[in-house]
Amino acid sequence: MGAQGGTIATVTAAATVETPARLADAVAEARAAAVDEAAVELGAGAGEEAVGEHLDVVPEPGGAVTHLFAARQGGYRGWRWSVTLACAGGEEPVTVSEVALLPGPDAVVAPAWVPWQERVRPGDLGVGDLLPAAPDDPRLVSAHVAVEEEDPEVATVAREVELGRPRVLGPVGRAEAAGRWHSGPHGPASDMARGAPAPCGTCGFLLPVAGSLRAAFGVCGNEFSPADGAVVAVDFGCGAHSDVAAEPVSPVTVAELVYDDGVDLEPQES
């Protein structure tokens, strides 16, 4: 701080980390530490080949310095041997604080870890597999809460006779399911639906689902339909609609008529 003309001025300098010259020059000591570590990891005699050229010197807080060397062992393209050196000061010897093999900016590394719950995809569940729903699964709500939203009287009876399930699909779960079904192979955007004579909502084989999705979805009950037993949108459709009428055709094959009017007949030989 300084004073000029009765005004106090504050000067803030950016914090910098100085590189101790003695540690920065200790490239040989750092390389030797990297070679020793590589020999431990890869076997005796492999250390010299695994540690490549010196790449950089990085100052660390507290007066330490990190030397970086190229990693030359197979399978570690872009990785670097990192050796951190420190010194107590004065004539104290340079000590090795840490040696590690770290990925560089262009290193080939494994993809980020994804928990198994997030890796599971539809169709992954096999025979004997278990996939428990999380206690706080946003798709599920308490069954009593869900029933009370629909009909409080029914909820009261259900509690008294201990009927129902502990949890059921809530608004989030129903919305996600409806989105999947509507945009899936049995939704209105499929090729089958676009070529259908009429939608499933007018088909006698449709079994409407219960609850709040009744007006939008049902289960196909036609064994000849490609969607038999599957949930279909009411605006889906196929050629097996209950009201499809066959075009009347003659049961006897009729040959195509040929008209020879105006055609000159060839004279018969006498």
Describe this entry's structure for a reader.
There is one protein chain. With 270 residues, this protein is of the alpha+beta class. Among the domains are: 83 residues; 30 residues, no CATH class; 62 residues, no CATH class. The relative contact order is 0.07.
Summarize the structure.
By secondary structure, the protein is α+β, with helices and mostly antiparallel strands. The protein is built from 8 helices and 11 strands. The chain starts with a strand and ends in a 37-residue tail after the last strand.
Q: What attributes characterize this protein structure?
A:
disordered N terminus, alpha+beta, 270 residues, four-stranded antiparallel β-sheet, 23% helix, three-stranded antiparallel β-sheet
In order across it, which strands form the biggest sheet?
A: 3-4-5-6
Computed over alpha carbons, the radius of gyration is 39 Å
Number of helices: 8
Largest sheet: 4 strands, antiparallel
Summing up helix and strand content along with how strands pair, one would put the structural category as: alpha+beta
N/C terminus separation: 137 Å
The arrangement of helices and strands along the chain is EEHHHEEEEHEHHEHHEEE
Average per-residue pLDDT, rounded, comes to 82
Give start-end ranges of low-pLDDT stretches: 1-16
* Strand elements, count: 11
Oligomer type: single chain
Tell me the strand percentage band: 15-25%
Task: Tell me, briefly, the overall form.
Answer: elongated
Share in helix: 10-25%
